[in-house]
Amino acid sequence: MSEPAPPPLSPSILQAGLKGLCPRCGKPTLFTGWIKFANRCTACGLDFAQFNVGDGPAAFLTLILGTLVVGLAVWLQLALSPPWWVHVLIWPAFALAAVVAMLRLAKGALMAAEYQNAAREGRIDRDRP
Predict the structure, then answer these.
(1) pLDDT tens digit string along 38-83?
(2) Does 3 fall in a domain?
């Protein structure tokens, strides 16, 4: 008699974000487009609509990458003293490309974290005094 196969391991938060893996079954079904979530996993049926990722990843990326861009721009100015138009050409394009490139990773990782930690919307317990 053969033993039943063990259940598949859920991917880590980083794996889910990098590869777009379903946080339950690990199949690459999390996204239907570059940053658009699928409605549900076609492999295990997990309803992705129940998770509320919202604009959190974009806000975090904007703040983190904005800090990086400002630091790099200051460094470039102090090291090479380029004309102002060089900064105008480089930094907006770099910031936009970095945010868009990292948005998929951040959204996937945040959804996986919500799933793994069973995070839900906060509720107020009205029965307490």
Answers:
(1) 999 999 999 998 888 888 888 888 899 999 999 999 999 999 999 9
(2) no
Q: Is the pTM of this model over 0.85?
A: no
Cα dihedral angle (15, 18, 23, 28), rounded to 10 degrees?
-110
DSSP the chain: -PPPPPPPPPPPHHHHHHHT--TTT--S-SBSSSSPBPSB-TTT--BGGG---TTHHHHHHHHHHHHHHHHHHHHHHHHH---HHHHHHHHHHHHHHHHHHHHHHHHHHHHHHHHHTT-------TT--
- pLDDT per residue as tens digits for the range 8-43: 578 899 999 999 999 999 999 999 988 888 999 999
Residue identified by tokens 């868009």 is 100
Return d(Cα 35, Cα 31) in angstroms, integer: 7
Query: How many independent structural domains does the chain possess?
Result: 1
- Structural domain includes residue 83: yes
